[in-house]
From TrEMBL:
<feature type="active site" description="Nucleophile">
    <location>
        <position position="417"/>
    </location>
</feature>
<comment type="subunit">
    <text>Homodimer.</text>
</comment>
<dbReference type="GO" id="GO:0000016">
    <property type="term" value="F:lactase activity"/>
</dbReference>
<keyword id="KW-0326">Glycosidase</keyword>
<dbReference type="GO" id="GO:0005975">
    <property type="term" value="P:carbohydrate metabolic process"/>
</dbReference>
<dbReference type="InterPro" id="IPR017853">
    <property type="entry name" value="GH"/>
</dbReference>
<protein>
    <submittedName>
        <fullName>Lactase</fullName>
    </submittedName>
</protein>
<keyword id="KW-0325">Glycoprotein</keyword>
<comment type="similarity">
    <text>Belongs to the glycosyl hydrolase 1 family.</text>
</comment>
<dbReference type="InterPro" id="IPR018120">
    <property type="entry name" value="Glyco_hydro_1_AS"/>
</dbReference>
<keyword id="KW-0378">Hydrolase</keyword>
<dbReference type="Pfam" id="PF00232">
    <property type="entry name" value="Glyco_hydro_1"/>
</dbReference>
<dbReference type="InterPro" id="IPR033132">
    <property type="entry name" value="GH_1_N_CS"/>
</dbReference>
<dbReference type="InterPro" id="IPR001360">
    <property type="entry name" value="Glyco_hydro_1"/>
</dbReference>
Length: 555
């Protein structure tokens, strides 16, 4: 009897295999191949009228002129001049020399057909020691010249107050771990609003506080390179970053909004996370913790009030289990919760990639990764980029935009960074970037048209190849190639420039049936896209400026 039962089960299994294969083959014949699913097929349509198309940069990454016209030292100046902190000991002393190349950068923006440009102000260029003891008029004049040139070209400036280049004198007294920085940041914001606010109507207080807190004060891999107390320092820094943002927002709201008429918010970065095994509940939970510990760390206090219960409970329980008298995550007072909640006119969002999350028990270790109880990997089938951490998964972009809508009350979303890197030999025919932008932006269009996400703007990262932080000039995110073997640092358009220009000029995606269309931007005839030699000739501009106690790194 048992033998017969086994035979019957085997017959059933074999029959089911034939049955499934028959259905599969029938579907292939019916569809004449393998049609794309709704998730990945292109959607043709347009973003809302007045959608803000932009591209982005950051002061330390492009300006150069590190000691020009009274600029003070930043933490990145010191960090980059410390041997072996930056790939090939590169630094931002010259970078793209944008301090001296306003006209060239404006021409690049015109080529892109964007009507907005996101850049950041260098705090130590305005206030050399980070305080109001000295306001550097020459530094302010540079930003006035830049803003005036943008406005003359009918390009709207989008200005970030803080994109990581903290004045070194403030770090000497604790940086973002010292609560006095909240008042210092408010003072700095006051100077910039007062000087530039009549011309600038779009403000970002702080770019990616997650990176500032975790990489700067936890992992120590970014300036200022602090890693002595990874279980507490990132949370203290993050706490002060949130309070500083709130004070800058209230300052603008109370003192400047009525007469200047701008909007202001914070830019938060996050990956999307999928469970490594979607049928395993601990991986499903780990994926949600990854998002809540990354995006939610800063978005929850700003949009919902206070840290999430998930984050508070986990860190408190793990802190008490380690014998601490209280949580390693600082607590906001009721007044601070009220002060921070609602300090947004929009949701500024940076996104690049998706990860696969899975549960890991770090036991009694005390650090951020142990608190979130998860590790992340990438799917081997996802396209790679020039950065180890960045894999191409466009569908994750739509999912995380929908998550923001559901989690934070459908705020207006400005994507303030999105892009992909390359490394190795330079190929101006950057097909990966073209693929990335077309598919990621199309997923944003789906989020808007199909999911009801309140999309207001999109900024491609980045305008040009620049100093990519610790990776130096090895990783290139730019739409424009900067030839570093030429002392004039020319900006050369890659093929992706014309594709992005078409998307922005068409305000979305036109269907194949509409081609040719008047909104398409065609590259100049005769353009060729050769490989550029894989080596660069390093050069150093002579300067009498020196830094006491800091070794001058190779350019």
């Amino acid at each position: 009897v048992l033998h017969c039962k086994l035979l019957n089960l085997t017959d059933i299994y074999i029959y089911s295999l034939f049955s499934r294969s028959a259905h599969l083959y029938f579907d292939i014949m019916k569809n004449n191949g393998f049609p794309l699913t709704e998730d990945v097929e292109m959607l043709y349509g347009h973003f809302p009228e007045g959608f803000m198309w932009s591209t982005a940069s950051a002061s330390y990454q492009i300006e150069g002129a590190w000691r020009a016209d009274g600029k003070g030292l930043s933490i990145w100046d010191k960090f980059a001049h410390t041997p072996e902190k930056i790939s090939q000991d590169d630094n931002g002393d010259i970078a793209c020399d944008s301090y001296n190349k306003i006209a060239e950068d404006i021409n690049s923006l015109k080529t892109l057909r964007v009507r907005h440009y996101r850049f950041s102000v260098s705090w130590p260029r305005i206030m050399p020691d980070g305080t109001t003891r000295k306001i550097n008029d020459a530094g302010l004049n540079y930003y006035h010249r830049l803003v005036d040139a943008l406005l003359e070209a009918n390009i709207t400036p989008q200005v970030t107050l803080y994109h990581w280049d903290l004045p070194q004198p403030l770090q000497d007294v604790g940086g973002w771990e010292n609560e006095t920085i909240v008042e210092r940041f408010r003072d700095y914001a006051d100077v910039v609003f007062n000087s530039l606010g009549d011309k600038v109507k779009f403000w970002i207080t702080i770019n990616e506080p997650y990176i500032v807190a975790l990489h700067g004060y936890g992992h120590g891999i970014f300036a200022p390179g602090i890693n002595a107390n990874p279980g507490t320092a990132p949370y203290i820094a993050g706490h002060n970053l949130l309070k500083a943002h709130a004070e800058a927002w209230h300052l603008y709201n109370d003192k400047y909004r009525a007469k200047q008429g701008g909007i202001i918010g914070i830019t938060i970065n996050s990956d999307w996370a999928e469970p490594r095994n979607p049928y395993k509940q601990e991986d499903v939970d780990a994926a949600m913790r990854v998002v809540q510990f990354m995006m939610g760390w800063f978005a929850h206090p700003v949009f919902n009030g206070d840290y999430s219960d998930l984050m508070k409970n986990i860190i408190r329980e793990r802190s008490l289990a380690a014998g601490r008298p209280q949580s390693r995550l600082p607590e906001f007072t009721a007044a601070e919760v009220a002060r921070i909640k609602g300090t947004h006119d929009y949701f500024g969002f940076n996104h690049y990639t998706t990860v696969l999350a899975f549960y890991v028990d770090f036991q009694n270790q005390e650090h951020y990764d142990a608190d979130r109880g998860a590790a992340v990997i990438s799917d081997r089938t996802w396209l790679e980029s020039g950065s180890d951490w960045l894999k191409v998964n466009p569908m994750g972009f739509r999912k995380i935009l929908k998550f923001i809508k559901d989690e934070y009350g459908n705020p207006p979303i400005f994507v303030t960074e999105n892009g992909v890197s390359e490394r190795g030999p330079v190929n101006l025919n950057d097909t990966l970037r073209i693929h990335y932008y077309e598919n990621y932006i199309n997923q944003a269009l789906k989020a808007y048209l199909l999911d009801g996400v309140d999309m207001r703007g999109y900024a491609a990262w980045s305008l040009m190849d620049n100093l990519e932080w610790t990776m130096g000039y090895d990783e290139r995110f730019g739409l424009f190639y900067v030839n570093r073997s030429d002392p004039s640092l020319p900006r050369i358009p890659k093929k992706s420039v014309w594709h992005y220009a078409t998307i922005t000029n068409c305000n979305g995606f036109i269907s194949p049936a509409e081609i040719p269309h008047g909104c398409q931007i065609h590259e100049p005839e005769g353009n060729i896209y050769p490989f550029v030699c894989s080596f660069t000739v390093s050069f150093t501009l002579k300067s009498s400026n020196t830094v006491s106690g800091i070794s001058k790194a190779k350019q």
